Amino acid sequence: MTDDGEVRYESVFRARWRDRQSGGARPGELIKQPGWIDAGLAALGVLLVAGAVVAGTVTVARSESLSAAVQGNSVIAVLAGVAAPATGTAVQFRAPSGATYDAVVVDVSATEVVAQLKQPGPESTGQLLVPTGRQRLITVLLPRLW
Question: Are residues 88 and 139 in the same domain?
Fold first, then answer.
């Protein structure tokens, strides 16, 4: 108790903990950090740089999706504002169930693409996936980060 009647508390436990943690620290430092923290930060920095290098060099395939229908072993797709694939291009037909079937482009006109399935598929409508090139991974990721 002080002279003016107030009760003041001194945090004995906190002072002991602070003294124990700062023991051996340089002047001006409150708490000495364990050495593994510096090593962990350095490892995170190395991983960040390695990830940036990989994202800048790795490429991913791009493809266009065309509305298509299966008739027998043929897939007929409508060209809608996309570049026509070359004859002999490997493509895939994706059924509404999600199953994919490999095919090869056999005929291309101004309005449609005809592909031959390598194995018979279901008589259905779906999507013909036509490869359009490759793109760097960093250009795919960066727009999504902003």
Answer: yes
